[in-house]
Write a structure and sequence with these properties.
Elements (H helix, E strand, L loop, with lengths): L2 H21 L11 H17 L5 H11 L9 H10 L6 H27 L1
Helix pairs in contact: 1-2, 1-3, 2-5
């Protein structure tokens, strides 16, 4: 499989992971066991945002792009693909803190609601 195609697959995987980290808590209402998969993903995504880390999928995508002869990009996945959609140009650490706080708040609210329903 060509490296360029693999790089595109990593991008798709990355998008799916971000979507799952944000919305995966909703699956707990249908499948209780999904809590054990979503919780680590959600915590990892929050840590990436709060600690200003780079997700390992970003360097993998860049390596695959370079291996296919395409240029790599600077910055992280969110800066490259999501900032233009969600935010004005220029992701700052403050933006990342806001993203992380929104992620944590949304998922904590989901889990609290789910927990209360289970307690009844």
């Amino acid at each position: 499989m060509p490296y360029g195609l693999l790089a595109e697959l990593v991008v798709i995987l990355h998008f799916l992971f971000v979507a799952y980290a944000i919305l995966g808590g909703l699956l707990v209402f249908r499948w209780r066991w999904s809590l054990f998969i979503h919780l680590p993903a959600f915590v990892w995504a929050a840590l990436i945002e709060f600690m200003h880390w780079t997700c390992p999928l970003t360097p993998l995508e860049n390596w695959l792009r370079r291996a296919s002869g395409q240029p790599a990009y600077e910055g992280g996945f969110i800066e490259r693909y999501l900032v233009d959609v969600l935010y004005p140009p220029g992701l700052t650490h403050t933006h990342q803190l806001v993203l992380g706080t929104a992620l944590v708040g949304f998922n904590l609210a989901l889990y609290a609601f789910w927990w209360r329903r289970q307690a009844r």
